[in-house]
Amino acid sequence: MTLRVKRLPQAVALLALVLFSLAPLYSALVVASRDNADLARATPPLVPGGRLLDHLGELVDRVDLGQAMVNSAVIAGVVAVANALLCTVAGFAFARLRFRGREALFAVVLASAMVPTQLGIVPVFMVVDALGWYDTLAAAIAPGLVSAFGVFWMRQACLEAVAPELVDAARVDGCSLARVYWHVALPALRGPAAVLGMLSFATSWNEFGWPLVALDPNDTPTAQVVLSRLAGGYYTDYPLVLTGVLVSIVPVLLLFVLFARKVVAVLLRGAAETGR
Amino acid sequence: MSRYTPYLLVAPFFLVFGAFGVFPLLYTAWVSTHHWHLIAGDGGFTGLTNYRDLLADPLFYNALGNTLSIFLLATIPQLALALGIASLLRRRGAAWQVLVLVPNVVPVVAVALVFGQLLGRDYGMVNFLLGRVGVGPVAWQADTWAAHLGVATMVMWRWTGYTALLYLAAMRAVPRELYEAAELDGAGGWQRFRAVTLPGIRPTLLFTAIASAIGGVQLFTEPQLFDGSGLAGAGGSDRQFQTVAMYLYEVGFSRFNAGYAAAMTWLLFLLCATFAITATTIARRIVRR
């Protein structure tokens, strides 16, 4: 009996945690599947209605969310692959190769993570514009090609997973660096690199401020920009807007579900490192 | 391996950081001393006029104040709540860790739009629930404090679980013997938390506080989309929730005043650098103790 009483607060706290984490998403589903008339009742609806498909049809008629999602997917896809490749080789170099200035260069990587780069949005725009990249996918992609977080993190993965003796031994055998990397490092780094790719994809997919200014919203919008414009104006048609929101969440949520366990494991390990 | 190979491998990072981080920052210094239209370009050297105007600009201070207020409202409860969640999940499985990370993968735009609906004045669920206990209706967008709280709630929702996982990892790294020793000394749960857990995860606490500050000063999307009328970026009819990042956006991309925006960028970078140096100095002292 006492055991049960003791457990009750914990159970309540856990239930609150589930509500806290999921209630906003659930409410989006409720609103997206209801009419404005339902939402204006004295008691707002608590369970989903049956209008989601109608709203999806209306959404397709009103905005080109499909094209915008393709744009977003191309940008995020390139960013994900680039991060997985470039951060991995840089992390490998920082972890297992000896070269002059290595520590200093790595310190620059770490320090750059502290720079609030989004405040540089105006000068970065000027750079991209001077390159003639305004309203090209390159403008949206280039600043995200490789990240300090990714380099730091792949270096960590390399320190843990790739034994230095193995690299040295392979080199003594006359293996070229490319072959050492390909046969020794890469197999061990494939898992972390995939998680990094997934996280980079999500970050890029979710980005709003930069694609808003780097791309012409009437010509090459991303999914996030289309949604923000759909919600703009004096009147916001919430069922329609939140239908769009649900659609735009699907790709990142799917990826997350696929990688969830790995992402959590990696985060927990990385966090233990930063705490040291 | 040629001696240059390692440099070649790390070069992409420095190219990107140089082109989209360092160079724009330096270029900004030059732009900030000019009359500079974003599209038309250089309109002549003006010295420190942009900085002088900025330091006398009430809208700039308004944005700074809003940013600080929203940051504090979002961060203090977030870190406290994250500590609680981390303690709650210490002996639980990975499924719980996945659950608390869900809000973090939801796009910020989606978060802003969902909460914008929930915090609607007339038909929002939050005001409905508050009405049941006799509060409200709260004008979440029009009232300054309510708006700050609303924006802070979105930030909190998206980041609390992530922060909790960082704390969880740090807690698991605290040596078990310390807890056993404390228990032998007769310390209760709360005392163990204060005497063992908190000191044990201090570096992580500092890390999350600094990371929140870096995120806080760049806060843009949530407040930008909070007032519904989307792209103007005024942060409400009275600029009651306009952050510095929003004001920067307004000056640069609505007024096309690149010179003024450049001055603001530099001033904000200096503020951040001062803050970061002060914070790390203090942090070093605390950690060493």
TrEMBL record, chain A:
It is found in: Cell membrane. InterPro entries: MetI-like, MetI-like_sf. The keyword Ribonucleoprotein does not apply. One of its GO terms (biological process) is transmembrane transport. Residues 69-259 form the ABC transmembrane type-1 domain. PROSITE patterns: ABC_TM1. GO terms for cellular component: plasma membrane. Keywords: Cell membrane, Membrane, Transmembrane, Transmembrane helix, Transport. Belongs to the binding-protein-dependent transport system permease family. This is Cellobiose ABC transporter membrane protein. It comes from Actinokineospora terrae. The lineage of its organism: Bacteria, Bacillati, Actinomycetota, Actinomycetes, Pseudonocardiales.
Automatic annotation (TrEMBL), chain B:
It is a multi-pass membrane protein. GO terms for cellular component: plasma membrane. CDD domains: TM_PBP2. The keyword Transport applies. Its main location: membrane. The chain crosses the membrane at residues 7-27, 68-89, 96-119, 145-169, 204-221, 258-283. It comes from the Bacteria. Belongs to the binding-protein-dependent transport system permease family. This is Cellobiose ABC transporter membrane protein. The lineage of its organism: Bacteria, Bacillati, Actinomycetota, Actinomycetes, Pseudonocardiales.
